[in-house]
Amino acid sequence: MAAKALLQVEGVQTYYGNIRALNGVNVSVNEGEIVALIGANGAGKSTLMMTIFGSPRARAGKITFSGTDITEMPTHEIARMRIAQSPEGRRIFPRMTVMENLQMGASLDNMRHFDEDAEKVFTLFPRLKERIAQRGGTLSGGEQQMLSIGRALMARPKLLLLDEPSLGLAPLIVKQIFDAIRELNKTDGLTVFLVEQNAFGALKLANRGYVMVNGNVTLSGSGAELLANPDVRAAYLEGGRH
Ligand SMILES: Nc1ncnc2c1ncn2[C@@H]1O[C@H](COP(=O)(O)OP(=O)(O)OP(=O)(O)O)[C@@H](O)[C@H]1O
């Protein structure tokens, strides 16, 4: 069966004032795939994630989701299309409990299956269940990351955007988080687009990957192809976390 693009990014340019952070980026994510975006600090990876989510806006190019043009859509409408985001730095609500954070992630439409969806999050991340009444800000970094992903899942997304889920976490916790992403993809068919500095882990997890340099996508291929590519190895893998 031919792969169907769920997300299509074509020729996207994004600026901060006069500074162009994305120079005409083309990326696609097919239904049921895990796609990784790797690149050095400042390459534009987070900017691409945020542009897909509507802020900052693309100044040129087109972003399509499920065949609908979302380039000009406000963020809340993009979320209603069932795109959910776990942003860089997690950004959970620190004064709210774990349960309240999950409630914030569920749309009104999804409140009727809240218990079922929360239970799914707890099956995926049992550590969160033990901390239901604890305030988000008092969780460890890894638990906050789990909560950030859990909150995004409460929206029942078709596409999950993850920005640096492994940032600053111990290898064992990174493994738990990557295993959870793999599990969601395998059992629920969830489509995932993730940004990672941990290129080795991300490319092992992903079906396909893109490499971004200075606001341009310079390479793409299957996870295995990129892992074997000498340029990728030299730039992102040698001496890295593997
Ligand atoms: N709010 C902002 N205002 C001005 N410039 C910005 C802003 N956010 C990002 N930039 C610039 O845009 C470029 C791309 O940044 P971006 O954060 O998207 O990179 P990144 O690949 O995600 O890097 P990192 O891995 O460090 O998060 C950089 O040159 C950065 O300095």
TrEMBL record:
GO BP term, example: L-amino acid transport
Top-rank lineage group of the source organism: Bacteria
PANTHER family assigned to the protein according to its UniProt record, in alphabetical order: HIGH-AFFINITY BRANCHED-CHAIN AMINO ACID TRANSPORT ATP-BINDING PROTEIN LIVF
PROSITE patterns in alphabetical order: ABC_TRANSPORTER_1, ABC_TRANSPORTER_2
Pfam family membership, one: ABC_tran
Organism of provenance: Allomesorhizobium camelthorni
Residues covered by the ABC transporter domain: 7-239
Name assigned to this protein: ABC transporter ATP-binding protein
CDD domains on file: ABC_TM1139_LivF_branched (cd03224)
GO terms for MF: ATP binding; ATP hydrolysis activity; branched-chain amino acid transmembrane transporter activity
Key words, A-Z: Amino-acid transport, ATP-binding, Nucleotide-binding, Transport
Family: Belongs to the ABC transporter superfamily.
InterPro entries (alphabetical): AAA+_ATPase, ABC_branched_ATPase_LivF/BraG, ABC_transporter-like_ATP-bd, ABC_transporter-like_CS, BCAA_Transport_ATP-bd_LivF, P-loop_NTPase
